[in-house]
Design goal:
Length: 426
């Protein structure tokens, strides 16, 4: 375990985030959402210290996006390298060095959605703190909730919920997957009860969390993408290719499953109607598919400049069939100025006003028809793109800071759980 770098107490309050991995914008949904919260915390004047509990940490040091100090439970920093301190972390490091990433096949039905901390890890969390009082303790999902026992002196304890995990598990089971660990509603309620305040990723989750933890303050903070609220209808729309579309995804099970479903059951019908249809795929999900197996599909892998790639695309897709929470890839699409064709699962949790920049289609035939229709009706694809201008302010940094400030104000001026539930009703 890396000892924390001493921090001079300069009067600024200290916020500690206990998280699985170093948060990175655009790396994956959880990392992007943690950055949404961290940027808001920093904007309120807190100094930051991160305690990284994950096993996949060894290798070259990655610079954080915000000024902070960092402790790692399973690695020690030596110069510009992190060396594993546990057998599990060492095994992950060797696997990564050798490139031994096993693809998720259609028959791989066990879906790992998280990892609870061991008692030993909880104890080491307490030893990873800077030698100053903790004013604000932030915990990344219920899987790290027990870390609050290691930091009992924290003035405020806030859960970054990310999701309603027992609902995620139910969604995975309904699609034939075995979620691990299997989170039930009672267990999730026990974990959420450890916190004074909870950050929900959408209003539906806020209402559910308020019922599970009636004594906690609950607030919705929508995910932020770098240029949210600054989206403009691009000049040079002539660069758009009406039959070219985009997909972005990590290696998460719901992404792999959804894209596989699209390529096997939807894409052939699209190509039958639009022979020159082209799909650009970016992100870690590309590692789960073989290049050249699908006509009209280009796997780009991780892309640093998504705008350069998507400026030629007419719209994006999110054929997700399972999961819960809010789909951050769609916020990425909107902030890139792209509308989207998605499923009801993909649309869940998004604000209904102003007019959303996405269409919803369920089932193979309807999804294919929606994609073909948007390719052939260029005016409709353009309308979806235009809607992103008024829609993306929902996901702005300014909105996140305002909601966090409200959450951290004295309890007498913060809405009760009952009002949170009432506000989430249609």
């Amino acid at each position: 375990m890396t000892a924390p770098t001493p921090v001079r107490h300069d009067g600024a309050p200290l916020a500690v985030l206990v998280c699985e991995a170093l948060p990175r914008s655009g790396e994956n949904g959880p990392g992007s959402y943690n950055m949404t919260v961290l940027r808001a915390v920093a904007a309120l004047g807190y100094r930051l210290h991160l305690i990284v509990t994950g096993l996949n940490v060894a290798g070259g040091v990655i610079e954080p996006e915000l000024p902070c100090t960092i402790s790692y439970l399973h690695a020690r920093q030596v110069g510009r390298w992190l060396f594993p301190l546990s057998i599990s972390a060492g095994a992950r490091w060797i696997k990564n060095r050798l490139g031994l990433k096993v693809r998720k096949g259609a028959s791989d039905k066990v879906a790992w959605i998280g990892r609870f901390l061991s008692e030993g890890e909880v104890a080491r969390v307490g030893a990873s703190l800077p030698p100053v009082p903790v004013d604000l303790l932030l915990i990344d999902t219920i899987f790290r909730a027990d870390a609050v026992r290691a930091i009992p002196q924290a003035h405020r304890r806030v859960l970054i919920a990310h999701d309603i995990f027992h609902q995620r598990c139910a969604s995975f089971r309904a699609n034939g997957f075995l979620p691990r660990p299997a989170v039930e509603a009672g267990l999730e309620a026990q974990k959420t009860a450890l916190f004074d305040a909870i950050i929900a990723i959408n209003p539906h989750d806020a209402a559910e969390l308020a019922m599970m933890a009636p004594d906690a303050r609950v607030s919705t903070i929508l995910p932020v993408v770098a240029n949210a609220g600054q989206t403009r209808v691009r000049t040079g729309e002539h660069e758009r290719e009406p039959h070219r579309i985009f997909y972005l995804g990590s290696r998460a099970y719901h992404n792999v499953d959804g894209l596989r479903w699209f390529l096997e059951h939807v894409w052939p019908a699209v190509r039958a109607n639009v022979p020159d249809a082209h799909l650009d795929v970016a992100g870690g999900v590309c590692g789960e598919f073989s290049a050249g197996n699908q006509p009209g599909v280009t796997l780009h892998g991780r892309v640093d400049d998504l705008a350069a790639l998507t400026r030629h695309c007419s719209f994006a897709i999110n054929p997700v069939l399972m999961g819960s929470g809010i789909k951050i890839k769609m916020v990425d699409y909107f902030c890139l100025g792209l509308g989207c064709i998605t499923t009801a699962n993909g649309a869940a949790g998004f604000p209904e006003q102003p007019a959303p920049p996405f269409d919803v289609a369920e089932g193979k035939a309807d999804f294919a028809a929606a994609v073909v229709g948007a390719m052939q009706r260029t005016d409709h694809a353009a309308q979806l793109r235009e809607r992103t201008v008024a829609y993306t302010p929902h996901f702005s940094h300014e909105a996140a800071v305002a909601r966090l400030r409200e959450l951290l104000t004295p309890a007498s001026s913060v809405p009760s759980s009952a009002s949170v539930i009432a506000a989430a009703q249609p």
